[in-house]
Write a structure and sequence with these properties.
With 328 residues, the protein is mainly α. It has a domain of 208 residues. 56% of the residues lie in helices and 0% in strands. It contains twelve helices and no strands. The termini are far apart.
């Protein structure tokens, strides 16, 4: 069978009859094309599905106390265990020290009202001072600058009442900026009061009926001053003055005898000053009531600490003496 794998040159050596048979039986027509060997494609590995992307969590801002100059969170680890100095000082104070601090704080607020009123009335004071040093007219010299002194005294008195009515005497924790804001409000209300009085005097001089205005310390005027808006002179309709902040919650804590004295003091003043005087008294009573509550809380806290020391067997001599006096 080696002839089947022989080369083309070996076809001449075939038998003639066999060659003739192959020609007859050979298929006619075009030769079929053999399929070409397909190249195997490299198997592509399908990537694993990526996990769902989550929104990056915002880093929590570290809380730093207001004493730090870097409020963006830098050096927050250094402030982690920080305790303000005033808190540390309060921990070592006894009952007498806390009561003394309350009284001193109230007295300081009361004294600072006079200082702030002097600052708001600086122009009136300088006018009085210049009149005393070098009076411009014979009338000023003869009256010992009476007109200038009255303007300054009234400004000082009204500014002090406005500060009390706006709550400057209260022992609430305030920043210097908040105290300065109250001072500016008091000065704006005083300027509005002067404008109202000028309108009334002008109407009287012209023979017209004087206009009626809201109280300088009404809710509308105080809100306008606290918002930093310019004082506007808007006459009231025929119903009269508007009501100011409710007073029942404060007057209910005052004894009837004391309230009667306050009402008698208010009745002696001119009608235009009665509302201002009442609001100033309310502001002072509110500060005193707040101070009394803090004193009471101090006594309660001290009594609780005294009971704890007694139960733990660590009562002091002072605790024993207070127990004899019936302090609990």
């Amino acid at each position: 069978m080696g002839w089947l794998w022989s080369s083309s040159n070996d076809s001449d050596k075939l038998d003639p009859s066999l060659r003739e048979f192959l020609k007859k039986e050979a298929p006619t027509g075009p030769k079929p094309t053999l399929p070409t060997a397909t190249k195997e494609k490299p198997v592509e590995s399908t990537p694993a599905p990526a996990p769902p992307t989550q929104a990056p969590l915002e880093p929590e801002k570290s809380i730093v106390p207001p004493q730090s100059q870097f409020q963006d969170g830098r050096y927050a680890h250094l402030w982690k265990n920080y305790t303000p100095q005033d808190v540390l000082m309060d921990r070592g104070k006894n009952e007498q020290d806390k009561l003394r601090d309350l009284v001193d704080a109230y007295n300081d607020r009361n004294a600072s009202i006079g200082q702030i009123a002097m600052e708001n009335c600086a122009l009136e004071y300088m006018e009085q001072f210049e009149c005393f040093r070098n009076p411009k007219t014979w009338w000023s010299m003869g009256t010992m600058c009476n007109a200038e002194s009255r303007r300054f005294n009234r400004c000082y008195d009204m500014q002090s009442k406005f500060l009390k009515a706006l709550g400057y005497l209260t022992l609430d924790a305030r920043t210097p900026e908040e105290d300065e804001r109250i001072q500016m409000h008091a000065d704006k209300l005083y300027e509005q009061m002067l404008q109202q009085e000028a309108e009334i005097e002008k109407a009287n001089a012209e023979g017209r009926e004087p206009p009626k205005f809201q109280s300088v310390l009404s809710k509308t005027n105080v809100a306008r001053a606290m918002a930093g808006k310019q004082a506007t002179i808007t006459p009231l309709p025929a119903q009269g003055n508007a009501q100011v902040e409710p007073e029942d919650d404060i007057w209910s804590q005052i004894k009837p005898e004391a309230r009667k004295k306050y009402e008698e003091t208010i009745a002696k003043l001119p009608p235009r000053d009665q509302e201002i005087e009442r609001m100033a008294i309310l502001g002072e009573l509110k500060a005193q009531t707040g101070m009394s509550k803090q004193v009471e809380e101090t006594f309660v806290e001290e009594r609780i600490n005294r009971m704890k020391r007694k139960e733990a067997g660590q009562a002091t001599i002072g605790d024993t003496i207070k127990g004899w006096w019936g302090w609990g």
